[in-house]
Design goal:
Largest interface: A-B, 15 and 14 residues
Largest sheet of chain B: 5 strands, parallel
Mean pLDDT of chain B: 92
Low-confidence stretches of chain A: none
Number of strands of chain A: 20
Helix content of chain A: 25-40%
Low-confidence stretches of chain B: 1-5
Structural class of chain B: alpha/beta
Number of helices of chain A: 13
CATH superfamily of the largest domain in chain B: FAD/NAD(P)-binding domain
CATH class of the largest domain in chain B: Alpha Beta
CATH architecture of the largest domain in chain B: 3-Layer(bba) Sandwich
Oligomer: heterodimer
Largest sheet of chain A: 8 strands, parallel, barrel
Strand content of chain B: 15-25%
Distance between the termini of chain A: 53 Å
Number of helices of chain B: 17
Chain lengths: 432, 456
Amino acid sequence: MADLTSEFLGIKSPNPFWLASAPPTDKAYNVNRAFEAGWGGAVWKTLGEDPPVVNVNGPRYAVSYGNDRRVIGFNNIELITDRPLSVNLEEMRQIKRDWPDRALVASVMLPMEEAVWARLVPMIEDTGVDAFELNFGCPHGMSERGMGAAVGQVPEYIQMAAEWCKKYASIPVIVKLTPNVTSILPPARAAKAAGADGVSLINTINSIMRVDYDTLSMYPSTDGMGSHGGYCGPGAKPIALHMIAEIARTADTADIPISGIGGITDWRDAVDHLALGAQNVQVCTAAMVYGFKIIDDLTDGLSNFLDEKGMTRVSDLVGKAVPSVTDWQYLNLNYIEKASIDQDLCISCGRCHVVCEDVSHQAITHTVNGKRHFEVIDEECVGCNLCVSICPVDACITMKQLSSGTDPRTGQAIVSEKADWTTHPNNPMRVR
Amino acid sequence: MTDMLQADIKPGRLSDAEIEINFSDMHPPLRRPEALVEADRCYFCFDAPCTTACPTGIDIPGFIQKIRSNNLKGSAYTILSENIMGGMCSRVCPTEVLCEEVCVRNTLEDKPVRIGLLQRYATQATVEDNQQLFQRQQESGKSVAVVGGGPASLSCAHRLASLGHRVTVLDAADKLGGLNEYGIAAYKATQGFAQREVNYILGIGGIDVRNGVALGTNFSLTEVREEYDAVFLGFGLGGVNELGLENDQAEGIVDAVEYISQLRQASHKSTLPVGRKVLVIGGGMTAIDVAVQSKRLGAEQVIIAYRRGQQQMGASEHEQDFAQTSGVSIRYWLAPSRVLLNEGRVSGVCFDYTRLDDNGKLERSGDSCELEADIVFKAIGQKVLWGALGDSAEVLETKAGRIEVDEHRKTSLADVWAGGDCIFGGEDLTVSAVQDGKLAAMNMDRFLRQRNGSGE
């Protein structure tokens, strides 16, 4: 059995799954239930300066559905904690006392005034929390007040606030990054420059879920009006993975410890985050949708996966896939794959044919010798993976490498030497 | 048969409450959550096998996608534009040998998308609430007589009316619908659905209905051909095949079709007389329907005797299973040889055992058995009543006792089309009849407009 205990910035937890700062960590009652269920840690619902914010009394959440009302995307307009600071601090102190083996992190969002940080950071640290997480990511409401994503979108502000926190804290400081930027690297560099101990990402993405089809107004709305919210959940995971990988594979940011957040619902999502460079992960939406019990599959599934891979601890997995992420220009243009349909598994739905025919390369038959039959025409197949992606049967269509002979599509010999865009004759900027 | 029972036929074997349960919807409609889950199972196949298998060619993945997107009006339109009786067909089609048999879901999981139930879900509101999705084209000034009021005729009438022609439906029965109204097992079309569908079809306008007028009695084919620009024959099969045995008209030997019709029309089914021991001779859907309904009316023992094997039976395997799980026994390889009488009334039937000879021809083995019965239902097929056609019977080309038509359902007469059970090659299915009527109407439309063009 693989060892799931995790250490992030020196903070130990029985597993690498923390609850992200969000509604599930709003108060002691929830966090107690989460720890009872087996979560490794919790980042408390973001603390702010008193008086507390007020939330709307209408809908805070909305979702986009997939099959059978499965939630694939989630959006919220809830603000930071709407409870007095003293109440939160008292509960955090008690939780840390009751659950000494779990990670407890204080998420904070404070105005851009050093005096406020100087006053509140020591007060919060006094509860016994293991670290600070600076919420520079919340994209709704708070950003209008010059906090949250409004800070996270300006590297200089990130650095300034993170330096203040470092100055007044003796425990690790994590900077939580917003994805609402064109490149995640400048914010990550700013955090590093400020001396932050690590980063966590991603916070939620600016989003509007849909309109109300009856009223033709934005949905959800508060008294007829809506405001953009933060998008998260399974649909947001690929955006998170890209940003994590960018930090992990870039020379001057690669050494920043990362806590991965974004769309983790089952253990495989966690594998994605960890393999692309996160040292631990944070979860919110899955708990919002299914409750805390999903921790069972997250820990159990990850443990079984590590065993299967012959890995003994979570850290063995961290960053494993990072070396495989590169720029497009370095992809081997001499490498050739063709789709191949396993006729024993094919149910003859014809979806591969119609998508290839309509939108791709006309490389899949529908009739052979007068019979309904779907097979790949190697002379046309560019290996795009569309048929593999949309086939409803798992493993029915797979990509197979052509490693010798000629490519039936181009008639050109297949060579084992790599050649990429940097040297391609069609590239006017090629390296000569 | 020394211990022969006295004929034991009486109504009220079951309470009204039991009868109500027994004759409630065979497959209850899907509720919205069920429909959405089921719709999501559809793979939206290319050139979908289900659509190919549907005699009316409904774009099945198309209508299911519209269920998914909550576009039920569009879904109903997709169905009804190919099959105006999509509501009834969703209830009575043997989907297990049509669309659902070829569903690609069967390949890896033996569980097709429940297309029939989804079609019912999609058409429910439209037909029940009489939301007219079709408008008539401009009046063509042409008139068509449609003889008969069953699925073929109503499908033809609706399509003709939508194309702008004036239609008169001439039907011998009191109510339109044909076998939908009089023939289908009660638990397949509950709550007066057949008449609601008829009303929906007539709702398009341009269709005049004359009930209680029979071809051959109240009018002749020659007369309607003179009065109208074209004629569609959809009068079905008015005659019943006989057993061809001595005493086959004895009291207690009953035409299954007639009995089912009475059952469908009865306001209180508990008033229908039913035998304690019921014997059904035949192997088609009528045999299954009369057997199961007898059982559900409270018959103690119901046996279907069929002269060939399970494979050859006209009723599908699914239907045979349904009968057996409803408590009906099916005895294969039994051909009736003699009617047994008690004081002039049927008391049973003597059967010869049968088998296939080396050439696959049915032969009698020489063994026999007797089955007791209070009532014997003949369900061995129906035939065209040629007498009704009068002199025209001689000019209409026929084949194997049915009217011969081309692929457009056109008969040998230039202005006469036909469809449904009365044509050769008919499949004895509502859905095929609907397709006949639709194809005929489209061909008639071309014919009628050509006549316009030629200045006639």
